[in-house]
Amino acid sequence: TSLSSLRSLITLKLCGGDEKRVDSRTIYVGHRPCPDTEAFIPSKFCDNRIVSSKYTVWNFLPKNLFEQFRRIANFYFLIIFLVQVIVDTPTSPVTSGLPLFFVITVTAIKQGYEDCLRHKADNEVNKYLVTVLEDGRSVKKESEKIKVGDVVEVVEDETFPCDLILLQSSREDGTCFVTTASLDGESNHKTHYTVPDTEKDLQALTATIECEQPQPDLYKFVGRMHIYKPEQEPAVRSLGPENLLLKGATLKNTKKIYGVAVYTGMETKMALNYQGKSQKRSAVEKSINAFLLVYLCILISKAVVCTTLKYVWQSKEGQDEPWYNQKTQKEKDTNMYLKMFTDFLSFMVLFNFIIPVSMYVTVEMQKFLGSFFITWDKDFFDPEIQEGALVNTSDLNEELGQVEYVFTDKTGTLTQNNMEFIECCIDGFQYKHRDTWSEVDGFTVTDGPEKEELFLRALCLCHTVQVKEAGSEEVLTDQVDGIDEMRPQLEEERGFIASSPDEIALVKGAMKYGFTFLGLESKSMKIKNRENNIEEYKLLHVLNFDPVRRRMSVIVQTKSGETLLFCKGADSSIFPRVKPEEVDRIRMHVERNATEGYRTLCVAFKQLSAEEYAVADTGLREARLALQDREEKLIAVYNQVETGMSLIGATAVEDRLQEEAAETMEALQGAGMKVWVLTGDKMETAKSTCYACRLFQRGTELLELTLRTLEDERLKLSFLSCRSWSTANQDYGFIIDGATLSIVMNPQHEVDASQYKSLFLQICQNCTAVLCCRMAPLQKAQIVKMVKTSKGSPITLSIGDGANDVSMILEAHVGIGIKGKEGRQAVRNSDYAIPKLKHLKKLLLAHGHLYYVRIAHLVQYFFYKNLCFILPQFLYQFFCGYSQQPLYDAAYLTMYNICFTSMPILAYSLLEQHISIEILLDNATLYREIANNAMLRWRPFLYWTLLGIFQGLLFFFGVRFLFSNPALQDNGQVFGNWSYGTIVFTVLVFTVTLKLALDTRHWTWINHFVIWGSLAFYVFFSFFWGGIIWPFLKQQRLYFVFANMLSSVSAWLVIIILIILSLLPEILLVVLRKPRGPHSRQVYLSLPFPFWILPFYHIHPILCYSP
Description:
Layout: H1 2-14, E1 24-28, H2 60-68, H3 72-86, H4 93-126, E2 129-134, E3 137-142, E4 151-155, E5 163-169, E6 175-180, H5 181-184, E7 186-193, E8 206-212, E9 223-228, E10 235-239, E11 244-245, E12 250-252, E13 256-263, H6 269-272, H7 283-314, H8 329-333, H9 336-351, H10 358-376, E14 390-391, E15 405-408, E16 415-426, E17 429-432, E18 438-439, H11 449-461, E19 466-468, E20 477-480, E21 483-486, E22 495-498, H12 501-512, E23 516-521, E24 524-528, E25 534-543, E26 551-557, E27 563-569, H13 571-574, H14 580-595, E28 599-608, H15 610-625, H16 630-641, E29 646-657, H17 661-670, E30 674-678, H18 683-692, E31 701-705, H19 712-725, E32 732-737, H20 738-745, H21 753-765, E33 769-773, H22 777-788, E34 796-800, H23 806-811, E35 814-818, H24 825-829, E36 832-834, H25 839-876, H26 890-900, H27 902-911, H28 917-922, H29 938-962, H30 977-999, H31 1005-1027, H32 1041-1046, H33 1049-1072, H34 1080-1085, H35 1089-1093
Helix pairs in contact: 2-4, 3-4, 3-9, 4-26, 7-9, 7-25, 10-25, 10-27, 11-12, 14-18, 15-16, 17-25, 19-21, 25-27, 25-29, 25-30, 27-31, 29-30, 29-33, 30-31, 30-33
């Protein structure tokens, strides 16, 4: 009960409260009024235009600027720029305005280009020509001009222009086939049905449709159709999802259909589902924000110190107003506190470059360009599906290197989802192919061939498989979600179309024993029996499968008039609904097959009397006509019919392990990740798969917490006993099922909720692997959220291949979709998609590791080089009377982050491989060394900050020592303040660039080009900027300063000595710090400098690595 209430609550939340809408809309088919309508007033609905773009030509500039300046960093630099414009500051507004303009412009161009593509896509859809029936004629119209009530014609392989109710099909049985790959990613052929009793001549059809208001659930539709005929009572027909053709879906294997538009434009289900996924933020972003706050505090502290010392210094006699610099009357009349405030702002402007505005652009470019390396990786290419990896979100690249918990689906993820019928059990007898029958387990009671044939008929009839006829030259395939399995054409053999591989496996399993399903035509199912006789059954009702019921049924009628119900489903769903004495014969086989790793289904049947069928038929029809609570009413009727059944037997289907599944799981555990398997399968099957994948080892002790007659008090005792076990020195595996989990997460008493959750989490965190079986999709997300929000906020990753995995993929920090056989919905909702599970190993251990190291180095390096840049400017104030005199020229202030130092770190952050990919893949333990955001913790940050302070002090006082010699040129002239700043800036640029060169372990021609090219560009620019008289400059401070500086041998000597002294500590550190272990030197020498400091903080045991 708690699970169902939780499910309904979450469904309400996900659908945005659409369940509360009880109002409906009335649609007149073909805009024709009904006979009993006194006044025909057509309702107004939205047109069929689709708008997915964010901007127009008129609102792009204000809207985009508003969105960009909502970012704190951009808003901060805008304030600084405005202060420079308004207040008399020591630096030109260009120094802040140009970098900000560059950042805003690049981002605006990127977003504008993306929106242009959206406009182009919208126009292609809206201007597409479609055929509409008007007054008996076929008229071509643009798609955007379709109105609700129009009758639309769609031909094969065309996309439906809006949501349509199917009125007529070219197929004789009144069906059509549809693929919905663009909606939910599932490329299997779905069958849709025309509304019964509609006129063949649609021009003569007079009808109204009453249906629910638009809502985003793709699989839900409730409505009814009133068909009016002359001198007859209106006929009422129920409408459901099987009658609704969704916009974006494609017509297949059907020449032509006609449908009436019910939802158009932005009210179609596709448009209502068009919404971005919730923004996921990486741990690196959070670290950047924390570091920014620290540097903002440093900036404010510097401004406060300088402002205070300025007024302390000016309080001395003669300092405030010397004889050579008398104050004007306006200056004397200025309020002192206002003057102090403007001075504070001036110092803020002078030192604001300590906050690196260009870092955001560099990080964005690094993430965007870096994601291509995953897409281009040839190891991720799968020849079977002719596809490679896919990146849907580049913002989380570095998060791949920080994963602590992996949540994986079983079927299609750990296994291939390639089903093969292995054996079946009928009335206690085990049947395998090639054996007629074999007696096992001591059961000798059997009803002979009658029960065998009944079982095989059930397999042939209880499904939703479609037969695909092949032409004379067509190769037959079995198609499951768009994956075609080639097979030789045998006599009378057909291809099958199904939404699930299980169904095809069972139908083909029946073929092995002589019963062949021939297809469904006009509600008539045909099968061929062992005697090659054709049996025909009238399909009366299909009781659809759903994850809650975990079963499906069909009601058919034989030629002799008998009404039969066949049901198949999970044992936990079937056993309570059959006669208890029949269960024992089958249970042993089911449990043994599950232990062997097979997927099991139980099959039951029931003969319905005329009265029983009449009650069921009436209940089903009434429930299907209901506009409100239709699903609940249908399930109530299903449960009423599916009782008192007779158990016939069970099936066993094998789902083989994915290629290299065991090796991948072993590597992930070796990397320190905890793997949880979340599956809807039964416990024994899932447990067997976990052993095969080496998640559970032979020595692993399993703790099982499953629900049979478990109540809250017993659950509490189980938890307490488990808690004491989990502290012992022993590897444990934990198993829990969905029913028990619902009690843990939603106990009867809210007081116990937090206690149960904390105990459950404590047990799981002390186990090497956790298996959660019989899980509903929303429970999977619940588990992920619980771990994600636990103490320490561990980084979680979810991987799955089906629609039932989407909830946990969206919930986790990183979502991985596998391009499997259960459609592409998981792929479309994931952050990254890979063809096979085995590719996860390289994605995390190699790409994830490298991405994290690269971006961590990028962030720390940006803060370090800006601290080196601004610290000499701060120190200079102590020697210029706190006059806010800039140390560097405005051109240097502007171009330092944009041109001189940006490209080398960008190249490093894209190409660096501090450890080779082969070593990373061979030694999974290396992944642990960067775990828990190791390179962006406070201690490494402190190291980089101290390094920046040391080098900034060295730059300033080293050059000041040079200037203690009054004669620095051959002609006896002395250098001025701009020469002083230029020498400091030259040492700065060369030092921070060479520091990056020393950190680089993987050199490419690109690294050489940008590092040495940046230094060459700085020298060229300095000569060029100072060698020409620029007419647009009022003051040319650097005229011939750089050339004059380099004419001094003393300046050359100081520049070289200061660069060497700045880099010397790190060079000495690597020389003196000897690695331990016979093979550790190779790994040790491959680490960038920041790693070498980590052993001193006891967070980098990689130096002890010895394979």
